[in-house]
Every structure is written in structure tokens, then in C-alpha cells.
Design goal:
4 helices; about 100 residues
């Protein structure tokens, strides 16, 4: 599959899943928080299949990209565990899928 198309689809799917996970949470500005989360997760899904030059298996590439993209959000919100855990799990899954289908 074309890496850009795969990245767009993976980014959309991961973004939607993360927004759905945020629905029961309380935020002062929930709309902005959900938009930020969607964009962050979209970036993870989009970038992983395009990082084919990273010298590691794609699942590792997915985890590294997810950590790098998720860390700023985790530091700003001080919600390290939920942001990093969801990011790493999603990044690993997308990396694995990219390794098989891209």
C-alpha cells in the first residue's frame, strides 16, 4: 500500500480512537483538548509509515515516533502515563501494520 495513504488512514483511525477515549474525561476546554489529541495522534499515524529509513524494525520505529510526538503533550499536561501509554500502544500497532502492509 502507498505509505502516504496508509499514513492518512492510520492517522485518522488513531485520532478518532483517542478522541473516543477522551469523551468520559473532564477538561476545562474539552473541544480544544480533543482537537489537540486528535492532531497529535494523527501525526503519529501519518509519520510512522514514512520513517522507512529508521534503522530498526517498524514496530520499534512506531514506538519511537509515538514517544517523540507524545512527550510534549505529556509534559505540558503532566498526564504522563495515559498519554505515553496510549501513544506507545498505538505507535506499536501502527508500526507493526506498516511493516506488514507498506
Amino acid at each position: 500500500m502507498n505509505p502516504v495513504l496508509f499514513g492518512v488512514l492510520a492517522g485518522l483511525a488513531f485520532g478518532v480512537v483517542d478522541v473516543l477515549l477522551m469523551i468520559p474525561m473532564q477538561h476545562p476546554d474539552k473541544k480544544t483538548a480533543m482537537l489537540g489529541a486528535f492532531l497529535s495522534r494523527f501525526a503519529i499515524g501519518f509519520l510512522i509509515p514514512l520513517c522507512t529509513r529508521f534503522p530498526a524494525p517498524m514496530i520499534v520505529t512506531g514506538v519511537v515516533v509515538a514517544l517523540l510526538v507524545s512527550l510534549p503533550d505529556a509534559v505540558i499536561t503532566k498526564a504522563y502515563v495515559p498519554i505515553l501509554v496510549v501513544g506507545v500502544i498505538g505507535g506499536a500497532i501502527i508500526g507493526w501494520l506498516a511493516g506488514r502492509f507498506v
